[in-house]
Design a protein that fits this description.
Largest sheet: 3 strands, antiparallel
Structural class: mainly alpha
Strand order of the largest sheet: 5-6-7
Order of helices and strands: HEEHHHHEEEHHEEHHHHH
Helix content: 40-55%
Oligomer: single chain
Distance between the termini: 10 Å
Strand content: 5-15%
CATH topology: Glycosyltransferase
Number of strands: 7
Bound molecules: glycine
Number of helices: 12
CATH architecture: Alpha/alpha barrel
Shape: globular
Radius of gyration: 19 Å
Length: 373
C-alpha cells in the first residue's frame, strides 16, 4: 500500500496541475464537454448534458483533499449554476440526476453545510423519483415516460444515480426514496446481472404487468456482449447499494461481477471498450472503465475477506500504475487527465479520447488511496 500511496500522491499533484491550468484558462463558470476532440476538451458555459457534474465534483474533491479555498470558490460558482439549471429545467428529463446533483449540490452540502445546495439536492431527488415506476420497481433511464420504447427500460449506469435517493432518505427521514432505490437495485441484481456474472447494459420491464422482458445494449458491442463501462458501473454501484442498505446480497453480486471484469482485462490491465475484446483485437480501450472499477474495488475493500482484499490490492496497484504510466496525459498538450477512453463506439462518439468521468473517477480513486488509513 505504501508504494501505491506514494504513486497516488504524485498523481494527485499531476491532476491538480491540470485542474489549475484549466481554471486559469477557462474560468470558474465553464464546463468541459463530455469527451475531448483530439484529446482537448472544449470548455463552455453550456450546462445541458449528463456530464457537467463530473468537473464540478473534481473541483469539490480538489477542495476536500487540499482545503485550498480556490477550489471551493470555483466549485461553489458551479454549484449555483446547477441550481439555476434546475430552476430553468434544462435537460433534466432523464435518470442522470445523481451524476449531476451528487457531485455538485450534495458535495457542496457535505463540505460546506450550504442549505441552498441541500434544498436543490432534495429537489433533484424528487425529480428522479418521478421516473420511478412502482409496478416494475425501476427508474426509467431515458425518454418520455409515455414513450413505449423507453418505458420500463432501466440501465446499469443508474446504480450510480440511486445513491442520490438513498442520501435523500437519510437526510429527510422519508423512506419513499430508499424504497424506490432499493427496489431498483434489486431489479438490477436480478435482471441486469447474467448467470455468467457479465451484465446487460439495459433491460426492459413490462410496466403494465411488472414482468421482465429482455436485455439489450445501447453502447456495447452486442446485446449479448458485456459493455466494459456497464460492468464497471456495477462494480462500483453494487457496493454502494450495500453501503446504504446493508443487504449483503449486493456484496455477493459485486464480488461476482468484479471477478468477471478482472478476468476479462488485457495484459496492461485497462479494458477494451467491450469485454468481448482481448489482446490482439484492434479495438479502442476505455480507460474510464478502469478508473470506475478502481473506485468500485476500493469501496469493496471494507467488506472483502483477506483473500479478496489481497486480490483487489493487486489489481488496484496494477490498474493505477498502468493508468499513471501509459494513459495519463503527462507530457502532452491535452487538458484532460486520461487518454484512450471511449464514450460510445456504436454511436461514433468520443472514441479513443479523454472523457470527463474517466478523469473524475481516476481522481476520486487517487484521493481514496491517498487518504486511506
Ligand atoms: N452513463 C453513460 C455512459 O456511461 O456513457
Amino acid at each position: 500500500m505504501m508504494h501505491l500511496k506514494e504513486l497516488a500522491a504524485k498523481e494527485i499533484e499531476f491532476v491538480l496541475s491540470k485542474i489549475d491550468s484549466n481554471l486559469d484558462k477557462y474560468g470558474y463558470d465553464t464546463f468541459p464537454r463530455a469527451a475531448s476532440v483530439n484529446n482537448v476538451y472544449e470548455f463552455s458555459k453550456d450546462n445541458n448534458d449528463w456530464t457537467e457534474g463530473f468537473w464540478t465534483g473534481m473541483l469539490w474533491n480538489a477542495y476536500r483533499y487540499t482545503k485550498n479555498p480556490k477550489y471551493k470558490d470555483a466549485a461553489m460558482v458551479q454549484t449555483r449554476l446547477f441550481q439555476e439549471r434546475f430552476d430553468k429545467n434544462i435537460k433534466l428529463e432523464h435518470h442522470d440526476l445523481g451524476f449531476l446533483y451528487i457531485y455538485s449540490c450534495v458535495y457542496c452540502y457535505e463540505l460546506t453545510g450550504d442549505e441552498t445546495a441541500l434544498e436543490y439536492a432534495i429537489k433533484a431527488a424528487d425529480k428522479l423519483m418521478t421516473r420511478y415506476n412502482e409496478k416494475a420497481g425501476v427508474i426509467q433511464a431515458w425518454g418520455d415516460l409515455s414513450d413505449p420504447n423507453q418505458s420500463g427500460r432501466f440501465i446499469i449506469d443508474c446504480l450510480i444515480n440511486i445513491p442520490l435517493l438513498f442520501w435523500a432518505s437519510e437526510i429527510t427521514g422519508d423512506k419513499k426514496y430508499y424504497d424506490a432505490a432499493y427496489r431498483h437495485a434489486k431489479a438490477s441484481q436480478k435482471y441486469i446481472v447474467r448467470p455468467d456474472n457479465s451484465t446487460f447494459h439495459t433491460f426492459h420491464m413490462d410496466v403494465v404487468t411488472g414482468e421482465p422482458r429482455f436485455g439489450t445494449t445501447h453502447q456495447g458491442y452486442s446485446d449479448s456482449s458485456c459493455w466494459a463501462r456497464g460492468q464497471a458501473w456495477g462494480v462500483y454501484g453494487f457496493p454502494l447499494a450495500y453501503k446504504h442498505t446493508k443487504d449483503t446480497s449486493f456484496l455477493e453480486t459485486a464480488y461476482r461481477i468484479t471477478d468477471y471484469f478482472l478476468e476479462h482485462l488485457p495484459k496492461d490491465s485497462v479494458p477494451f471498450w467491450d469485454l468481448i475484446f482481448t489482446d490482439g483485437d484492434k479495438q479502442p480501450r476505455d480507460s474510464s472503465s478502469g478508473a470506475i472499477a478502481l473506485c468500485g474495488m476500493l469501496e469493496q475493500l471494507g467488506t472483502a475477506d483477506e483473500a479478496r482484499k489481497s486480490k483487489y490490492m493487486d489489481y488496484i496497484e496494477k490498474i493505477t500504475t498502468s493508468l499513471a504510466n501509459n494513459y495519463a496525459t503527462k507530457n502532452s498538450d491535452s487538458n484532460g487527465i486520461l487518454l484512450h477512453a471511449t464514450y460510445a463506439l456504436p454511436q461514433n462518439n468520443g472514441i479513443d479520447e479523454c472523457n470527463i468521468w474517466g478523469d473524475h473517477y481516476y481522481f476520486e480513486a487517487l484521493i481514496k488511496i491517498a487518504m486511506a488509513d
